[in-house]
Description:
By secondary structure, the chain is of the alpha+beta class. The chain folds into 3 domains: 1-70, Sandwich (Immunoglobulin-like), CATH 2.60.40.60; 71-178, Alpha-Beta Plaits (2-Layer Sandwich), CATH 3.30.70.3310; 183-249. It has 6 helices and 9 strands, in the order ββββββααββααβαα. Strands 7-8-6-9 form a 4-stranded antiparallel beta sheet. A 3-stranded antiparallel beta sheet has the order 1-4-5, with no helix packed on it. Strands 2-3 form a two-stranded antiparallel ribbon. Residues 1-77 form the Cadherin domain.
Amino acid sequence: DPDIGDNGLLLYSLVNNQMNEFDIDENTGQIFTVSVAGKSGTFYLEVQAADQGTRRLTAQATVSVNVDSSSSNNMVVAVLNQKINVVEKNIADVKRVLEDKLAWNVYIIDVYSDESERKARSSTDVTCVKILAFDEANQEVSAENVKRKLREQKSNIEEELTKIFSTSVTAAIEEAPGKSAAPELIATIVLGVLLACTLIASLAYVLFTVRRQRYTDNKQAETVEGIDNLYAIPENGSLRSLEKLQRTNN
């Protein structure tokens, strides 16, 4: 607007309450997504520009936005300790801080909290912001690099967000839960444990049987040896021991 003063100050807004999927920076007119996860197609937004003069003048235009439904493996989720309705109101500033500290173009893919809290949008103090970053060549930045940069800039990001929300802010990275073992792997492990237990039991039984047999053989050998010694002839060839035994029996 070539006018000066308030007449030259333009503020942008979306009309018809189109705030669920998109929002707009009132100062620059930049449109960004709030929550388009799982959605695709062309969205038509009514954008209004208004000056701040005494007799306010306005103008409207229709903007078409194409949303690609293709998924990306490079999306990263930042977790803020703020209520979702507060984050949504300040999402433009959150985006600005992330772009400034990461030095990449950042797109907000989704803003959400726990599914059970979606109806009560001010009841949870944890909000997830799903982002996708692009470099200067408009190429997706890998999730690994985005996470690395977020960790490096964690304190700076939290400091700037604290200024925006006027309260202490912590920013964490949501890690994907570990994949559970496949049923085939679980079955293999269980079978292996059962086989090991069976083998140990078999070895224990064999060992017990061998020791028992040895014990029985030793007892029998001692009995036979005792009988042999009873009728043994002394080394000097004397039969006195045998004679004494016979007299005792008589």
